[in-house]
Every structure is written in structure tokens, then in C-alpha cells.
Write a structure and sequence with these properties.
Number of domains: 2
CATH architecture of the largest domain: 3-Layer(aba) Sandwich
Structural class: alpha/beta
CATH topology of the largest domain: Aldehyde Dehydrogenase, Chain A, domain 1
Largest sheet: 7 strands, mixed
CATH superfamily of the largest domain: Aldehyde Dehydrogenase, Chain A, domain 1
Distance between the termini: 90 Å
Strand order of the largest sheet: 14-15-16-13-12-18-19
Number of strands: 22
CATH class of the largest domain: Alpha Beta
């Protein structure tokens, strides 16, 4: 049977490697549960070959002047922008996210990050520092490339996250072996082909395909200098532990259970719009989502009424229609996981179901595309009268499930918002910016917003606290995660200071 997309193989030495596999699996369209392409799992020997290709390319690439690397990466950014809609359609097919989202967010923001780091290194971002210790002694520092790095992608923002990892990696003079998620791998070789077209030399950016076993082999490899991983906390801990055993550099962007705090003076419409954005964008499959929505007791009734009145603006349906803004979940295992949490919220937690539930969305029965009936569609769901101990409140569901909790005082809500072992993101909605700054300062999270949610521009360094991660991505600090620093003290006095002189 002919599939919509060509098969995907490993990519190294500047070309697709069709002999890199002895087995394959299929990636699935979440909207219909039908196969999209055959993905050929990379063998250990082919992973070794990809790493060897990167090692061969590293000396010349790291020695290339930063301004020349910048020009190549700027050309790549321009190619991504020129092919935005083509790439967005691939992301929509692979992830189930509507084209209205992938065409305006996923590729665009990935290209922004690539351009940001190209401009950063081209404008002196790789320069070190100097300090004069005394008249005849100086210290200077240099930023040095790490070597061959591993990038492990996530399935919710495939091409964006691949660019978040590869852009600073390549800009800093490193080479990368990238493994996409096995659930959303279609972008991977297209990304490699665009880098190649832009002038990135063979071996600088490479791709391997497969599941967790391929990722484990790659990240444990002795010739990998750094591992950058995006995914859930439990997996991230294993990856970080393995990397630490080899004294590798790591960046870990893991999960969260973020608090969206509506302060008593907040504009009700802004608060509702923010809470909906923090829960239902990307069908709730965003690590920074504010799924614990804290509302003042006195505002609860009004907030819920306004929230229910706006739920009609969530529009599932044909993923390529411009009006559609809500898609299916990414895979069958994840679909089953999210449904189990919704049922647990009803049956065990005994939370009040305000909207949605575990039943199939009613619109599916009348949709002209009958294949959608077998896809991984769920209803956006809202629970209220929740308590902090409920499983739907404590666990990261990673789906469109909002939990509404009430509070009485600012001190109380800060304490409860921080009562979690993760600290990826948090946000507040208020008219009082002085109050906003005071509350944000007390929230234990690495990414925070005031009167908005979710935006993460290239200029903004982001990273989690607690068990939500290690290190940061993007912004000027993001470049530091891909270099190692060397300090040199130069003595110019003509005499070597020594304690071993003749008395």
C-alpha cells in the first residue's frame, strides 16, 4: 500500500542512508489512526557511523569563523521560512495539530531561534572576556566548542524543538546527531536536507531513527560530549543519570504541573482567555501548560460562567481548515492515558465535571471524513471543586484537562502553587503590576508570565526548576549551554614567581 509520505531513514555524511536499518515501524496520523510513512530504525553500527561522520566534520566546522557559520545558518533560516507551509503540513499530519497552529507557530518560531543564534555568534557571541590582574599580568577566556552532541527530540513540537537544539549547537561550532521522537519523525530528514541545501557541511547535522533503545545507545556513547533532551521527568532522569556517568554536559527540559493564578482584581475576560490558552492550546500537549487554575473563592461562579460561554470557540474538525484550532491527541497510547485520567477525575477523585468528559466528541458522528472516527480525538475537559491532593491535580496529564481550585489569600495560593516537585512554569493575571511582580517573585518556577501565557521567544532563556530540568534553552544564556570555557593567565613580568628560590 502506498503511504502519504516517503520512508524515513538515518541521515549522515550529508545524505540519506537507506542501508542503515534492518527493521521498520509506521508513524500514524493522529486524526485518522492511519499510517503515514515507514520509519526505518537505525542499527547500532549505523549510529556509530553517524557519530563518526560528526567526529570527522567537527575539526573543520569548529574552526570555521563564527561569521561564516552565521551566514550558513541564516540561509537555512530563510529556507525554513520559504517552505513554512510545506513543513507545517508535515507537522499537522504527524502531530495532529491544526494547520492554523503549525503554520503560524511551529516552523516560524523554530526559524526565529535559528536566526537568533546565527546573529548572536555572527555578532561576537563567541567572544570571551579579559581582565587585567596587575600591570604585567592578564587573564583571558575563550569559548570552545564541545564536540559531537546528541539531541533527543519531543513529539509535541517536533521541528521547533529540533531547531531549539540544533541552532545553538551548530552556531557554537558543534556537530549533532539528532533522534526525533518515534511518534513524530517526519520532519527529521527534511530538516537535515534544508541544512545541507543551506551549506552545512556533511557530518555536521545527522539524524538517527527509532525508539528509546536508539536514544539510549546514542546518549550513552563514549564519543558524545553533550546530551540535550526534551521529554517527561521520569525519562529525563534516566537520560541525565546515564550522561552524568560519562561526565557529559546535559540540558534537560522536562515536564511540569504549572499554576495559573488568577488574582482577585484580574479582568475576568483576560483571565478566562489566559486559562483557556494555558490548557487547550495544542490540545493541552504543552509542557508549560497551566493546568492548575487557582481562582479566588469570590470569583469562582463568574469565572466558570464566562469560561463555559467561551468553550464554543474551541473548534475541532478538518485539521487543514483555517478555522480549526483544536486537534486530536498525538498517539493511541497517549489517548488512552489522557482518557484514564479523565475517568479517574470523575470516578475516584470525585471532582465536579464542568465540561467535556471521556465520551467521544459528538461532532465526530456527523463529520464528512469518516476516517476521523478512528482518530485520537478527545473533548476539552474542565473539572471544578478540585483539591490539591487529587491525582488530576498532582499528575502531569499532558492533555486538554483543566482543574479549577479556589483560594482565599495571596499567601495561601503561593504556598499551594509551590507545593509540587516540579517547577517548569507559572503565571499570574492581574491589573496590578506591582502585585504581579511580588507574586511572580515568590513562585518556584523557571518560566513565568504576567497577563499572558505560553509565549517563548528566541530572546527568552527558558528552563525549569526543581525536577523540571537542568540548564536553559534560547536567549544569550542558551549559547553558554553549548560551549566550554577556557581561562588563561598570562604573566608578562619576565620573572616566574616561585617559592623555590635560594635563600
Amino acid at each position: 500500500m502506498s503511504l502519504p509520505y516517503a520512508p524515513r531513514f538515518a541521515f549522515y555524511d550529508g545524505k540519506t542512508q537507506s542501508g542503515s536499518s534492518i527493521r521498520s515501524f509506521q508513524t500514524i496520523d493522529p486524526a485518522t489512526a492511519e499510517p503515514l510513512a515507514n520509519i526505518h530504525t537505525t542499527t547500532p553500527s549505523a549510529i556509530d557511523a553517524a557519530i563518526a561522520s560528526a567526529q570527522t566534520a567537527f575539526p573543520a566546522w569548529s574552526a570555521t569563523p563564527p561569521i561564516e557559520r552565521a551566514r550558513i545558518l541564516q540561509r537555512a533560516a530563510a529556507l525554513f521560512r520559504a517552505r513554512n507551509d510545506e513543513l507545517a503540513k508535515i507537522e499537522t499530519s504527524d502531530t495532529g495539530k491544526p494547520f492554523s497552529e503549525t503554520s503560524t507557530v511551529d516552523v516560524v518560531t523554530g526559524a526565529d531561534v535559528l536566526e537568533f543564534f546565527a546573529n548572536l555568534v555572527g555578532g561576537g557571541g563567541m567572544n570571551g572576556e579579559t581582565a587585567q590582574l596587575r600591570s604585567d599580568a592578564w587573564v583571558y577566556t575563550t569559548k570552545n566548542s564541545l564536540g559531537v552532541c546528541a539531541g533527543i527530540g519531543a513529539w509535541n513540537y517536533p521541528i521547533q524543538i529540533a531547531l531549539w537544539k540544533s541552532a545553538p549547537c551548530l552556531a557554537a561550532g558543534n556537530c549533532m546527531v539528532y533522534k526525533p521522537s518515534e511518534f513524530t519523525p517526519l520532519h527529521s530528514t527534511v530538516l537535515a536536507e534544508i541544512y545541507t541545501e543551506a551549506g552545512v557541511p556533511p557530518g555536521v547535522f545527522n539524524v538517527v531513527q527509532g525508539g528509546g533503545d536508539v536514544g539510549a545507545y546514542l546518549t550513552q556513547h563514549a564519543d558524545i560530549a553533550k546530551v540535550s533532551f526534551t521529554g517527561q521527568v521520569a525519562t529525563g532522569k534516566k537520560v541525565a543519570g546515564s550522561a552524568a556517568g560519562g561526565m557529559k554536559y546535559v540540558t534537560m527540559e522536562l515536564g511540569g504541573k504549572s499554576a495559573c493564578v488568577i488574582l482577585p482584581d484580574a479582568d475576568i475576560d483576560q483571565a478566562v482567555d489566559g486559562a483557556m490558552l494555558a490548557n487547550f492550546f495544542s490540545t493541552g500537549q504543552v509542557c508549560t501548560n497551566g493546568t492548575r487554575v487557582f481562582i479566588p473563592e469570590t470569583m469562582k461562579s463568574k469565572f466558570e460562567q464566562r469560561l463555559l460561554s467561551k468553550m464554543k470557540f474551541i473548534r475541532p474538525g478538518d485539521l487543514h481548515a483555517t478555522a480549526t484550532n483544536f486537534g486530536p491527541l498525538v498517539s493511541k497510547p497517549h489517548y488512552e492515558k489522557v482518557l484514564s485520567y479523565i475517568k479517574h477525575g470523575i470516578e475516584t477523585d470525585k471532582a465536579t465535571l464542568l465540561y467535556g468528559g471521556p465520551e467521544p466528541p459528538s461532532w465526530l458522528s456527523s463529520h464528512p471524513n469518516t476516517a476521523y472516527k478512528t482518530g485520537f480525538w478527545v473533548q476539552p475537559t474542565i473539572f471544578t471543586n478540585c483539591t490539591d491532593a487529587m491525582k488530576i491535580v498532582t499528575d502531569e496529564i499532558f492533555g486538554p484537562v483543566m482543574s479549577i481550585l479556589t483560594y482565599r489569600t495571596i499567601d495561601e495560593v503561593v504556598l499551594r502553587a509551590n507545593n509540587t516537585n516540579v517547577g517548569l512554569a507559572a503565571g499570574v493575571f492581574t491589573r496590578d503590576l506591582n502585585l504581579a511582580h511580588r507574586v511572580i517573585a515568590r513562585l518556584d518556577a523557571g518560566i513565568t508570565w504576567v497577563n499572558t501565557w505560553g509565549e517563548s521567544p528566541a530572546e527568552m532563556s527558558v528552563g525549569g526548576w526543581k525536577q523540571s530540568g537542568v540548564g536553559v534553552e534560547n536567549g544569550k544564556r542558551g549559547l553558554e549551554a553549548w560551549v566550554r570555557n577556557k581561562s588563561t593567565l598570562v604573566e608578562m613580568g619576565g620573572v616566574v614567581p616561585t617559592v623555590f628560590a635560594k635563600l
